[in-house]
Design a protein that fits this description.
rod-shaped; 75% helix; 2 helices
Length: 88
């Protein structure tokens, strides 16, 4: 058995660098942007369908709901990918 030097950190407790911490923060901002853009896209498409079919707020509400669900799913997937990258 090789003895560890005094003051040496075990390999399991690696120190994260400055840029790794900042990149993790940017990934979280990216997830929020994906969520917001998906909701806005759903609302916009619903608005356009409402104007085309002349069925005021029904398609816009459905588009907003579908955008919200899709945005949550995409943001969750991005956050899970970031967590998986940190664990590896």
């Amino acid at each position: 058995m090789a003895e560890q030097k005094q003051g040496a950190k075990p390999e399991s407790k690696k120190q994260e660098g400055y840029f790794a911490i900042r990149l993790r923060g940017l990934m979280n901002v990216g997830a929020g942007n994906v969520f917001a853009s998906t909701v806005i896209a759903g609302l916009l498409l619903g608005f356009l369908v409402d104007r085309w079919l002349d069925i005021a707020p029904i398609a816009m509400l459905l588009g907003g709901l579908l955008g919200f669900i899709g945005g949550m799913r995409n943001a969750h997937r991005l956050m899970q990918a970031g967590a998986h990258d940190r664990d590896v």
